[in-house]
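Kindly inspect this chain:
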Amino acid sequence: GTMLTISSVSALVAFALVLVSSFRRKPSAAITLGYSFFEGLFIGGVSAFFEYSYPGIVVQALIGTVAVFVTCLVLFKSGLVRVNSKFMKILLLGMVSIIVYRLLAMVLAMVTPSSAVGNIDQITVMGLPLGLLVGLFAVIFGAMSLISDFDMVREGVRLGVDKDMSWSCALGIMVTVVWLYVEILRILAILRDN
């Protein structure tokens, strides 16, 4: 109960800090560090909940997150994946689709009795739970977002932008890595339930 409350409040504060950061003209170390603190509380709570429900899942999710991070870095550094306008359009479309799905799932869970619809993530498509398919989709777009973050860092260095900009780059990478970790946790939990 208390852990869930702390985790939920921390997630909201971290989200608010990301929004504040996105509307500020000048990057802020305080906002990035504040986000790190509150997101750490959120991740700790979520990890504890998942670990209690599915022993060993946190280590698996961490390994998965590191694997995705390293793969993205290798793909980016090797030049096999390039960030261009087409890449960014696909990334934006994917991100919007995931957000719409998550919001729809949340609204359905709140307004319908569980017996009427059940958990939207458990609806099967081609024999696989929808939540698993959306989770895999989210990891792919999370990986694309991470590559976009790496590109932002490279462009910043190339253009010689103010070193304060490094706080925005760090924030972007942290937000993406946390998203990937949570999505991988969700995928592993769905796989264990089925």
Notes: The chain is about 80% helix and 0% strand.
